[in-house]
Amino acid sequence: MKRPSDTSSPEAVEPPDDDPVFFVDRCFGRRKVPDALRAAGARVEVHDDHFAPGTADADWLPIVGELGWCVLTQDSRIRYHDLEYEAYLAAGVPVFVLGSGNLMGDEAGHVLVRHLKKMKNMARSTPRPFIASVTKSRVRLVERRKRKMSRRR
Q1: Does the structure show a pLDDT above 70 at 150?
Q2: Domains by residue range for the chain, with CATH
Q3: Of 98, 124, 128, 99, nearest to 37 (Cα)?
Q4: Nearest CA among 53, 52, 74, 55 for reference residue 131
Q5: Contact 51/2 with Cβ under 8 angstroms?
Q6: Any alpha helices (H) in 71-133, and if so which ranges?
Q7: Residues 28-44: tens digit of each pLDDT
């Protein structure tokens, strides 16, 4: 595992220690989305600061789960890929999926920042694991499961 992200940014607001940590998946890149979230006061860790670029989701999800972090991704198909889905359940992580896959960089960061308070509240109050969809207009719980529960058929 690599060293933690450098969260010191001149514009960043210092988040409270009890705020959830958002683990930003590779699909968002290393700068624009993480920097936007940090500037808005989020605690952020970036995939490539901890794992090699090609690391499979099934390999990093258990580690992120052990650390108690929330996942931010654009992989809206996580519920339908068996290996990733089972890893998500076993890890017990909250996953926030940016539902508009065509949003990139600044626009993706803007949408996530707009809903940051709602995501923080959901991360604190909703039993884990869960998957929530984040769109331009809202954050919506799409699935909440018990750990290691079998998939519906």
Answers
A1: no
A2: 21-142 (3.40.50)
A3: 98
A4: 74
A5: yes
A6: 82-91, 105-114, 116-125
A7: 988 999 999 999 999 99
